[in-house]
């Protein structure tokens, strides 16, 4: 009963803290709420008229929704790059950032699930995947593995920070014997969520663009570049608008992770390009369409070449230590890298897998306004959730939110 009382008090105090703030905070939350409402309106149209209101069709059946899902799986997995040094390697410099990283992982995973629901057409079809009611088809289907690892990773990223914050809310020290095993498991689970997602694509034999042994490792490399890059940008905002102290050396250490991962990602990209274009076969047509266009169809050309240019520029700049340690340059490079990998792992990976089709038909895909509206709404929901989680965690860490015992 006492724990329920403390939990109830935590919820009330958190609501009190997250509904109050500066003018900038209120404007930020208001803008996110407006974008979410626009997204809900667009989703209502999709529910009413079906997926025909999107740019997807029977030729290109995965589009903007699955592109964002794939990218956000990587963002969620990136939290492990803070969890491992903090809880496993005992690096004190990361302790200030790890709860922020795990909050970002929770928001990213919720967005992942939302994008899957949007892509399925609506929540009414989810019963097909409920074990015992629908056809879960475990362990034969890679999709069921993906469902398990994503929900398992979400549980880990909710339970570990909650335990730590719940103890600190009461003024107690968290017991390492309780959360360290979960932290170690989350490290392994983070690798699993991205590898299983890669295997989901690699297992589709009719899509040769995805039948690439480097797909899984490159998923991890791009995730460990884009995810920590976003964490750096978030930490920069927290440093500017809150009293929560984030040491510069912590940001510089995360920047090193971003740099190494971005370099590995570039090397793997070069390897893939060599494989596709040095000795091309008819299976290289999807890559030709993506990078050079096919039969006058060039919808993705500006996207992919912009992404590669941004990727290369950001990676080269981060490679030089004086540039990397200049925080303004670092933030600029992290922004470039985040957008570049979003394009590359989105449009640059998902859409070309369907073009040309098995019979050589080229049908291009571009998202509709409805798709863009739903997508922006889901991103706004993720930002809204993360803001609430971060404000609560920062309040507890600073001692502003504490359990008050009633006499």
TrEMBL record:
It is a multi-pass membrane protein. The keyword Metal-binding does not apply. The chain crosses the membrane at residues 27-46, 66-85, 97-118, 147-166, 178-201, 221-242, 254-274, 300-320, 329-355, 375-396. Its main location: membrane. It is found in: Cell membrane. InterPro entries: DsrP-like, NrfD-like. Keywords: Cell membrane, Membrane, Transmembrane, Transmembrane helix. GO terms for cellular component: plasma membrane. NCBIfam families: DsrP. Belongs to the NrfD family. This is NrfD/PsrC family molybdoenzyme membrane anchor subunit. It comes from Hwangdonia lutea. The lineage of its organism: Bacteria, Pseudomonadati, Bacteroidota, Flavobacteriia, Flavobacteriales. The gene is nrfD.
């Amino acid at each position: 009963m006492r724990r329920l009382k403390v939990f109830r008090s935590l919820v009330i105090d958190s609501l009190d803290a997250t509904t109050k703030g500066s003018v900038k905070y209120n404007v930020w939350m208001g803008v996110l709420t407006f974008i979410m409402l626009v997204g809900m309106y667009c989703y209502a149209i999709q529910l009413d008229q079906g997926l025909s209101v999107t740019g997807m069709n029977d030729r290109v059946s995965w589009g903007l929704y699955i592109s964002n899902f794939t990218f956000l799986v990587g963002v969620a997995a990136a939290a492990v790059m803070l969890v491992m040094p903090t809880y496993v390697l005992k690096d004190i410099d990361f302790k200030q950032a790890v709860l922020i990283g795990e909050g970002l992982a929770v928001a990213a995973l919720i967005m992942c699930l939302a994008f899957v629901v949007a892509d399925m057409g609506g929540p009414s079809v989810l019963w097909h995947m409920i074990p015992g009611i629908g056809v879960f088809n475990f362990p034969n289907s890679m999709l069921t593995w993906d469902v398990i690892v994503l929900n398992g990773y979400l549980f880990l990223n909710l339970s570990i920070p909650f335990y730590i914050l719940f103890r600190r809310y009461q003024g107690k020290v968290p017991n390492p014997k309780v959360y360290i095993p979960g932290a170690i498991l989350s490290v392994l689970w983070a690798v699993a969520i991205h590898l299983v997602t890669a295997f989901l694509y690699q297992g589709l034999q009719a899509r040769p663009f995805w039948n690439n042994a480097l797909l899984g490792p490159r998923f991890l490399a791009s995730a460990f570049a884009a995810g920590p890059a976003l964490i750096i940008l978030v930490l920069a905002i927290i440093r500017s608008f809150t009293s929560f102290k984030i040491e510069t050396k912590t940001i510089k250490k995360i920047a090193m992770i971003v740099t190494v991962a971005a370099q590995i990602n570039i090397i793997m990209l070069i390897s893939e390009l060599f494989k596709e274009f040095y000795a091309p076969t008819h299976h290289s047509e999807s890559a030709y369409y993506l990078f050079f266009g096919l039969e006058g169809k060039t919808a993705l050309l500006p996207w992919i070449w912009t992404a590669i240019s941004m990727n290369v520029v950001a990676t080269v700049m981060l490679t030089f230590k004086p540039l990397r340690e200049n925080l303004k340059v670092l933030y600029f490079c992290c922004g470039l890298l985040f957008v570049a990998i979003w394009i590359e792992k989105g449009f640059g990976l998902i859409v070309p897998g369907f073009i040309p089709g098995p019979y050589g038909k080229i049908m291009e895909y571009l998202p509709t306004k409805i798709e863009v509206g739903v997508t922006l709404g889901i991103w706004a929901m993720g930002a809204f959730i993360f803001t609430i989680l971060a404000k609560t965690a920062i309040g507890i860490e600073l001692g502003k939110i504490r359990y008050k015992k009633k006499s």
